């Protein structure tokens, strides 16, 4: 097993490559291990593979000044069929009209993107991945609970991405040449290749991959646009529908906050925070709003367009997009393939963050290079995605319904810690060397866990899911994420004050 000595790396300000090593049980090394070490070190030195993983990036290694790249990364991650699929849920499953659906998407996206953009600015200032920085609220060990939740969330998004891409490839030939299972494997393996390489290659890919994605979506809209006006008649929208669908939209955006700084840690420490936040905000919100609304329009017309209905029944959302492109013949099939591959921008970036989260799960896992986890998560995603594809929209709604709650509580707690208790002072995270990995310098995390858990006493009654509707949600609709955000922040203040008095840190 390849291993990395975290303490050695952390105590040196140079790049990680000299310390990539291997160990065996008797403490000896062999020639094969040394060869593997040299290969990894060479790839790291060239920037082809990132081996640092979750170790905070030293000040002098934060050298990236092409700040606009962060816009391309967020824009590319959101320019694919994923937000289109989410938008379809509003009209197909929640029964909203296109106008009301569009308004909900607009408002909740604009609001939900704010914490993601803000937390992305923390990466250049601290050099820390988002959940490493969260140790300063949740402690070294309690943060593992967050990491497990984030792993489940990110893996869920990877599964959704893989199903959408795989079904799009299947829809090209109606499943005759490539079925959904084979398509899922192809998409997942291609994403593995990108995420395996790390920060540099990921940013280069995301800088250009959005271009064919935008062209393909425009072509698909042009081919099927004449049917978008055929919206089904729906009853007047209720407040409960608005809040429930709004919660789903927020659940699409808020989980990015738990990995926002993962993509900006190599940027220069003096990077202008307003600029980074603006690039992140526009890059994430703009395509999400436009494509979700497009998805809502498509979903509202599906019951009135027979070919779209058939595509939906065979390959879900991807089948609808393929049906929209069917009039273009062979060219339409080619564009469908491009749409399938456009999902790689989201999937590869998500896999990249998953590899970092695996390292943070347990202290020992810091010793295993990030690239190893790329292979592990790909295998997991393929297995789960093949099964999830059988009832895609049902599984999608169940998945989305849960992830927004914990993400909102996380945001409330870490933002209060940074704004109220640390006074917006980034030096407080780095002024004590290696504090991020020292239990003596980190808080116990009891206050954060207590606030996060206790807020669910009101979150659960405010939940509205296909499998459970709380007593409050029966009247109001789903208000779970709003309650989680506000109540976790409010509870954290007195709990943290008490923790500081008792633990002294």
Automatic annotation (TrEMBL):
<keyword id="KW-0812">Transmembrane</keyword>
<feature type="transmembrane region" description="Helical">
    <location>
        <begin position="208"/>
        <end position="228"/>
    </location>
</feature>
<feature type="transmembrane region" description="Helical">
    <location>
        <begin position="141"/>
        <end position="165"/>
    </location>
</feature>
<dbReference type="InterPro" id="IPR026030">
    <property type="entry name" value="Pur-cyt_permease_Fcy2/21/22"/>
</dbReference>
<feature type="transmembrane region" description="Helical">
    <location>
        <begin position="240"/>
        <end position="264"/>
    </location>
</feature>
<dbReference type="GO" id="GO:0022857">
    <property type="term" value="F:transmembrane transporter activity"/>
</dbReference>
<dbReference type="GO" id="GO:0005886">
    <property type="term" value="C:plasma membrane"/>
</dbReference>
<keyword id="KW-0472">Membrane</keyword>
<feature type="transmembrane region" description="Helical">
    <location>
        <begin position="331"/>
        <end position="352"/>
    </location>
</feature>
<feature type="transmembrane region" description="Helical">
    <location>
        <begin position="364"/>
        <end position="386"/>
    </location>
</feature>
<protein>
    <recommendedName>
        <fullName>Purine-cytosine permease</fullName>
    </recommendedName>
</protein>
<dbReference type="InterPro" id="IPR001248">
    <property type="entry name" value="Pur-cyt_permease"/>
</dbReference>
<feature type="transmembrane region" description="Helical">
    <location>
        <begin position="71"/>
        <end position="96"/>
    </location>
</feature>
<feature type="transmembrane region" description="Helical">
    <location>
        <begin position="479"/>
        <end position="498"/>
    </location>
</feature>
<keyword id="KW-0813">Transport</keyword>
<dbReference type="Pfam" id="PF02133">
    <property type="entry name" value="Transp_cyt_pur"/>
</dbReference>
<feature type="transmembrane region" description="Helical">
    <location>
        <begin position="442"/>
        <end position="464"/>
    </location>
</feature>
<comment type="similarity">
    <text>Belongs to the purine-cytosine permease (2.A.39) family.</text>
</comment>
<feature type="transmembrane region" description="Helical">
    <location>
        <begin position="276"/>
        <end position="298"/>
    </location>
</feature>
<feature type="transmembrane region" description="Helical">
    <location>
        <begin position="102"/>
        <end position="120"/>
    </location>
</feature>
<keyword id="KW-1133">Transmembrane helix</keyword>
<feature type="transmembrane region" description="Helical">
    <location>
        <begin position="177"/>
        <end position="196"/>
    </location>
</feature>
<feature type="transmembrane region" description="Helical">
    <location>
        <begin position="398"/>
        <end position="421"/>
    </location>
</feature>
